[in-house]
Model the fold of this input.
Amino acid sequence: MEVKEQTKKMKEMINGYKLTYLIMSANNIGLFNILDNKEKTLTQIAMELNLEEDRIEPILNGLTFHKIISKNKNSYYLEEYNEVLNKNSEYNQLGYIQFAETIIKRYENLENAIKNKETATNSFKDLTEKDAESFMQGMNANAINPSKFIAENYNFDNHKILDVAAGAGTYSITVENVTAKMIDLPEMVKIQNKRIHQEGLEDRLTSEIYDYNINFPTGNYDDVFLFAVVHQEPEEQVRKLLDNIYHVLKPNGRLFLTSFFLNEDKISPEYSVQFAIEMLINTEKGNIHIMRFKT
Done:
């Protein structure tokens, strides 16, 4: 790659933060709460947001340039990203955008986290209720499709499930004809119980406070759900957790596990490589483990 091209690529990478802040700011001022697939004029948008037209117009045009929203003359609407930015869509990522703001602020601490692991801030142990709600909204949207896949492709009739670090509880809620215990940290459990009550699922779902590294439920379960958890822990803690799970599973019980894994080269896949860096900021010992296949 020639120097000219190197310079161009480097500037593009460095300036990537500008688009991130554009999306987050648009979300914070409530823009995505008032946009859908129907056109609204600049004047309408400014009035609904109680902002001056000349302050909001550059934001709208910037989002249009990046094809995040669409423009027709002097009107704006959601098109390509309607499903993930429309507040009425079950797949909307507005909560995830809010949660990502907390992670971005922690990236400012990356240099210190590299030099001293004690400066890392755990993403979950210090969650406020607001952070937990944002995180759960984003995680719920991301879990909808895989939870439907599991529900449609595996038999769970009359099963008893333990959902470890259940997050939004999407998997236990989606899989029907089961009873499930969700365990998580206090702020998450508070919101899980609220959701269970709102959806009228008290007859089959419960949520209890557990830190799986300190205490673990007893009982016998047909299935254990362990989704997006093990990357937060070092290998010795993962082994301990899996051992605890083994002891609560019935004979021929099943463990459903997802996480981010690295290939042997440790430089792929892309998302796992980036997430390994994020673990430096958010945990003292968290790690993205290498995926090894036995034949």
About this structure: The longest helix spans residues 129-153. The chain has 13 helices and eight strands. The first strand starts at residue 40 and ends at 41.
